[in-house]
Amino acid sequence: HSVVRNALFCLETAANQKENHVYTKALLAYAFALAGNREKRKALLDSLEEEAVRKDGSVHWQRPGKEPEADLPYYRSRAPSAEVEMTAYVLLAHLTSQPAPAQEELSFASLIAKWISSQQNPNGGFSSTQ
């Protein structure tokens, strides 16, 4: 359909920009995963992996220039909702793969899921309704 084709062309143009924000890359990776564009999806996920924050056996993404959190013994702050969202989009991009994701991808996805689950509040929800 021409509308979808034009929308994908617009997304490809945006993906080819040199300086995309990590949140934009996460959204684009998921969009290309849904569209079945394996090459763009992989390129974006590879780029995102370079920007990943690996900590305590988990993986997540945060906004560039964010100050590191203080490492306090009995206090664990929750990440801002935008960081939970972009990390969730990266997880969706990893799991939305045709054919099914490879074992390596599933292993990496489990590290992302670990971080996301650590962001839940005591009621099982998150800081954002999204």
UniProtKB/TrEMBL annotation:
Signal peptide: none annotated. InterPro entries: A2M/Complement_sys (IPR050473), Alpha-macroglobulin_TED (IPR011626), Terpenoid_cyclase/PrenylTrfase (IPR008930). One of its GO terms (cellular component) is extracellular space. Gene3D superfamilies: 1.50.10.20. Residues 2-130 form the Alpha-macroglobulin-like TED domain. This is PZP protein. The gene is Pzp.
